Amino acid sequence: MSIWELILAFVVVVLMLVALLANVLVLLCFLYSADIRKQVPGLFILNLTFCNLLMAVSSMPLTLAGIIYKSQPGGDPICQAVGFLETFLTTNSMLSMAALSIDRWIAVVFPLSYHSKMRYRDAALILSYTWLHSVSFPIVAASLSWVGFHHLYASCTLYNKRPEDRTQFMIFTGVFHALSFLLSLIILCFTYLKVLKVARFHCKRIDVITMQTLVLLVDIHPSVRERCLEEQKRRRQRATKKISTFIGTFILCFAPYVITRLVELSSVVHISSHWGIISKCLAYSKAVSDPFVYSLLRHQYKKTWKDIINKILKRSSINSSALTSESHNPNISQLNE
Can you tell me the distance from the alpha carbon of 307 to that of 109, in angstroms, rounded to the nearest whole number? Predict the structure, then answer.
């Protein structure tokens, strides 16, 4: 193995471990907190978490084996099953992010009618559509034998081995990425930009009230005035940062891989195998960033996973103190015997 292959293999291992730990923690928070389970967006986050976990235990290990052995890991049935699952999970993840953005758009733009427009039944219908949409493409690809081991990405994924099917495969690939990546990106941009517009409008209203208050309070201390102005500035930047993170991570992680898949269809441009694996790793990195972007860095999830950790540490400290007291008290030890 070359130094590049060692680095790429190490990156895949790190991505796999972090994705497993982070998404398991999100799942534990969902199971532990009744408040999180009551929220409608929790269904979309749960679906996204399961997609990321399955990606970490199915596709990533085979990519690691493909990098190390430079050949197809396992037999054709295993590779085709993993390629089918990888196509389904990637599409499902993208559409789940789009569903989360629609939920935020309704909550912010139509706050009074949110509970009537976005109920559990509505969320379940949206999830049903994402599953049907996501499973349709791998079914078509598998029926036409367009799933297999692709050496450029060292992965089991969409791959056409027959030259006579080149035109049909090009059309299928273009439609697939248009109705998965591009569709999700359009929904993300439309909904989050609407949310940003409303957030900025509310910020302006708060800023006007703040400035009027500061003008009226003539005797206010300069330090208090400065803190108010700093909070005003942070408030304006907060929504922009969050929305930039949602859209930016989506583009940064998926766009290089999607563009590479489309450029690959042209026989004119040569693509390095190292770049192919790097673009695949960037797509895998979305399974790592999603738990932090959508869940673990939010206040409610922070409080929940901190409560879980404190509960585990408290229980372990109680057990250790009980063992220590038993070792120092011979009477207790004799009774236990």
Answer: 33
Q: Which of 119, 54, 130 is nearest to 95 (CA)?
A: 130
Among residues 37, 62, 38, 132, the alpha carbon closest in space to that of 284 is found at: 62
Biggest alpha carbon distance in the chain?
84
Q: Which residues contact 36 (CB under 8 A, 6 or more apart)?
A: 29, 30, 42, 300, 301, 304
Residue 244 one-letter amino acid = S
Given a contact cutoff of 8 angstroms between Cβ atoms, the answer to whether 123 and 44 are in contact is: yes
Can you say how many angstroms the Cα of residue 202 is from the centroid of all Cα atoms in its chain? 29
Q: Where are the domains of the chain?
A: 3-302
Closest Cα to residue 260, out of 248, 284, 276?
276
pLDDT digits (tens, 9 = 90+) for 195-240: 988 887 767 666 566 655 655 565 566 666 567 667 666 766 777 8
| 280, two tokens | 């695949």
Output DSSP code: residue 147.
E
β-pair partners for 156? 149
CATH 1.20.1070.10 fits 3-302, yes or no: yes
